[in-house]
Amino acid sequence: MKNIETYINTHKDRFLNELFELLRIPSISADSNYKPQLLQTAEHVAQALTNAGCENVQILPTKGNPVVYADKIINSNLPTILVYGHYDVQPADPIELWETPPFEPTLKKTEIHPDGAIFARGACDDKGQLFMHVKAIEFLIETHQLPCNVKFMIEGEEEVGSPSLAPFIKEHAELFKNDVILISDTGMISNTQPSITTGLRGLSYVEVEITGPNRDLHSGFYGGAVANPINILNQMIAKLHDENNHITIPGFYDNVYQLSSEERTEMAKAPFSQKEYNKALNIDEEWGEKSYTTLERSTIRPTLDVNGIWGGYIGQGAKTVLPSKAHAKISMRLVPGQDPDTITQLFTDYFISLAPKSVNVIVKPHHGGKAYRTPLDSTGYKAAYKAYAETFTNTPIPQPSGGSIPIVSLFSDVFKSHTILMGFGLNSDAIHSPNEHYGLFNFYKGIETIPYFYKHFTELYKEEHA
Ligand code: BES
Ligand code: MN
Ligand code: MN
């Protein structure tokens, strides 16, 4: 790539200021009060793509927040890269734990980011990462080095499970037709050891409600004689894992893809320190499914976690009450082989079976999605490997991630193309947490590496189609 480093150096301050403008708009998809800001963010992204030299820029309506489309089609014989990203962000709560305001991006140095990092909600997930693609395409168009066709799909509901995107992509399958999908919405091992995310876990997310008596009761008059839904809910949740921390739902592991011992040995080669992991989280000991390592537990094994639990009196002081209801939100991370709808059904049947007759149980499914794996022998993976090899001093390591981007498995069904996850975030970037940040090194390195993916993907594609 001619002049990519010079181009970044010349424009680095402008790139940063433009990203800051995007980060200042609170595009929180979970909260309907922010609808206007979501639309404003979509318009902002569309304008940025127009400024970068893209064509046919459109804000396409969906049942929910709109999808931004843009393209640059130079020759129908050349391959087409589809870039996906999301302009929505997680809520900023708990707001009081932010050291600087979440929607006023601020530069600060950290131990891991000695050159500085951008602190803001969405800095890493995903505005900072999607914006690298906008700047990469600007460079390719501006310097007349765009080697292939490109399309953009930037959505606004990823953080709430992409509910409108599934029907949307089926309707617009032709418009978004592509040869490979490129996403920067994941992470890598460290700034000196790049990695390419080769897997995402699936998800089944449910909410449960336990009802005991028809009203809150005096715990002195009734306590001990009427089932307390909070006590019962806790007993039921405790039964979901056994003493080896296996999940007890019958059939849960039935179709789980089991890694071969070669694959597990390969995985174990990735640099990882349990001691540093524990230290970073301030825990004395790790926890998890027996016979698996921390890296395996958090990427290739399915899990079940309570995300929130509530009921009864939580105000100041003490109130003696036996509550009528108790609630919990529960997520299950899935791996290849597991179908989210089947898992939701298995959970529902088992959870209801755990309840004594003294309470009523309602299980409400939220969103879900299947796991995804990128084949290491795909053209896209090979091109990504070559791209990192050009811009980093170390070659990249393939590594599955524990996170989820639920729409990705549907992409492979609808478009029959592979998804390449070139994420530049770090685990320590605190995505979804207070003080989310994104390293300046990572931001600029992403802009530098992406054009090489275009180059190598096009070259490999031409060789294969010669
Ligand atoms: N970008 C993340 C997913 C991610 C981050 C994957 C880092 C791998 C490494 C995405 O925005 C996200 O937060 N996904 C959610 C699921 C969604 C349905 C809310 C998740 O993984 O919890
Ligand atoms: Mn994301
Ligand atoms: Mn996220």
Structure description:
The chain has 466 residues and is of the alpha/beta class. The protein has 2 domains: 4-200 and 372-464, Zn peptidases (Aminopeptidase); 202-256 and 302-369, Alpha-Beta Plaits. The chain has 12 helices and 16 strands. It has helices spanning 4-23, 35-51, 127-142, 165-171, 229-238, 261-267, 274-281, 294-297, 340-353, 379-391, 407-415, 440-464, and strands spanning 55-60, 67-72, 80-86, 106-108, 117-119, 149-155, 180-183, 195-200, 202-211, 303-311, 325-334, 360-369, 372-373, 397-400, 419-421, 437-439. The strands form 4 sheets. It has a 6-stranded mixed sheet, with helices on both faces. Strands 10-11-9-12 form a 4-stranded antiparallel sheet. The chain is globular and about 80 Å long. The model has no long low-confidence stretch (mean pLDDT 97). The structure holds ligand BES and manganese (II) ion (2 copies). One manganese (II) ion binds next to loops.
The number of helical elements comes to 12
**Strand fraction band?**
15-25%
CATH superfamily of the largest domain: Zn peptidases
The distinct ligands, each listed once, are: ligand BES, manganese (II) ion
**Largest beta-sheet details:** 6 strands, mixed
The CATH topology of the largest domain comes to Aminopeptidase
Secondary structure class reads alpha/beta
